[in-house]
Amino acid sequence: MSAADINLSDHAFWLRPPAEREHAFRLLRELDKPAFFADPEVPYMSVKGLGYHALVRHADILEASRNPEIFASGLGGATSIIDMPAEFAEYFGSMINMDDPRHARLRRIVSRAFTPKMIKQFEDDVEVAASRIVDDLLEKGSGCDFVTEVAARLPLKIICDMVGIQESDYGFVFDRSNIILGASDPEYVSDAESIGTALLTAGMELQELVQRLAADRVENPTNDLTSSLVNANIDGERLTAQELGSFFILLVVAGNETTRNAISYGMRLLTLNPDQKRSWLEDVDGRAPGAVEEIVRLASPVNYMRRKVTRDHEMNGNLYREGEKVVLYYWSANRDESVFDDSLRFDIARNPNPHVGFGGPGPHFCLGAHLARREITVMFRELLRRVPQIEAGEPERLFSSFINGTKHMECTF
Ligand code: HEM
Predict the structure, then answer these.
(1) Are the beta carbons of 186 and 399 closer than 8 angstroms?
(2) Which of 77, 140, 263, 362 could connect to 84 by a Cys-Cys bridge, CB 3.0–4.6 Å?
(3) Residue 381, number of CB atoms within 10 A of its CB
């Protein structure tokens, strides 16, 4: 393969084996300037743009993230390479797809809702939930689908509890979030022609769920996140029903799939690298912070985010013109050999580890990074202490260019 053979907009590229993907991105990182690709074909989006520059080096992603007034998230969206149609923005238009000042206002209201008391409560909930998942595993016996029975359960429960969704609705939320992030995979939407409708329906159904919840919390406030977002905070600020709905979709989608994929990928990495597993087992708590960062680096659950250039700008020797698009491939930056020694090696003691798995430095840096790190830490602490012999089989990968996901993975213990 040469760099000229690579087309990141070709859906087939994302089905290739991981080793080929590694090789392709290495070739792209070696080019003098970022490769330029035509927009991908998306069956439910009729408007096609003029293509995009693929930012694959760590230095470019840092620079673009630090300059949000030049590399904007709001002009057509950050989560889709093709400009998001207006009808999608209604459901999927929360802060991740906005620029300041709208972004800053939403982020401020939401961040204030995460009070120290609430964060402490989540942390306690994570301990209880992870311990219950391992109880169930041990009770069941010798094997399981690690993704659905372990990795997916923890973030789903934590996000739902945080928002105030009852246990009987967990399955409903799980299915809709799979559609929103896994729509291109036939397991979640069988017919490519109906992807657009499936996405809009899933968005609408989640909005309805949270709006029912919000109406209840206006009448009967509790101490969940929904209550604190619909009722005015100390500065008299609150979210409108529409803002709450979109934020909720962002939370369930961003908080679920990403953490699930990091935990699954981490399990696979430990299986493939028994020396690293032994090392972690020798000091489960002490080595957890390094191990968790290294898992997020190599898992890179979010492959990319997109930006639009607001004015002509030179960055690291290359010119980007107003109106052009750039795609920030975090997955590639996290393997950049100019930053990470032996970059494909899983090394839980890697230090420093300036990965961009949670995004680059800037206003959109992951709001849930603290919670995600906590969930991954506690889940592995429970597994390593109570089921140290657990091993993962071959992952069944999600077909997606956006999410580096695992749908199923047999495990034995
Ligand atoms: C391993 C787990 C996770 C990964 C890899 C991850 C990754 C990311 C990335 C790459 C971004 C940057 C978006 C951008 O720059 O355009 C982001 C933003 C965000 N994440 Fe996460 N995330 C994770 C867990 C979570 C969790 C658990 C939550 C919720 C509790 C969450 C909520 C958000 C939100 C709300 C944003 C948007 C922030 C903004 O635009 O200001 N994430 N995440």
Answers:
(1) yes
(2) 77
(3) 18
Q: What angle do CA 69, 73, 77 make, to 5 degrees?
A: 155
Q: Tell me the per-residue pLDDT of 30-73, one tens digit each, with 9 for 90 and over.
A: 999 999 999 998 877 776 789 999 999 999 999 999 999 999 99
- Could you give the 3-state DSSP secondary structure of residue 324? coil
CA of 282 to the centre of ligand 1 (A): 31
How far does the centroid of ligand 1 lie from the alpha carbon of residue 133, in Å?
24
pLDDT in tens, 295-336: 999 999 999 999 999 999 999 999 999 999 999 999 999 999
- Does the predicted TM-score (pTM) go above 0.90? yes
User: What pLDDT score was predicted for residue 291?
Assistant: 98
Looking from the CA of residue 73, the nearest atom of ligand 1 is 16
- Ligand 1 pocket, residue 80 CB under 6 Å: no
- Residue holding tokens 């999410």? 403
Query: Which residues have C-beta within 8 Å of that of residue 166, sequence separation ≥ 6?
Result: 160
- Nearest ligand 1 atom to the CA of 371 is 27
Q: Distance between CA 130 and CA 137 in Å, rounded? A: 11
Q: What is the rounded distance in angstroms from the CA atom of residue 314 to the CA atom of residue 80? A: 24
Pocket test for ligand 1, best of 367, 376, 403 (most atoms within 8 A of CB): 367
For residue 95, give the ligand 1 atom closest to its CA.
40
Q: What is the pLDDT of residue 127?
A: 96
The four Cα atoms 337, 339, 341, 344 give a dihedral, to 10 degrees, of -50
Q: Is 265 in the pocket of ligand 1 (CB under 6 A)?
A: no
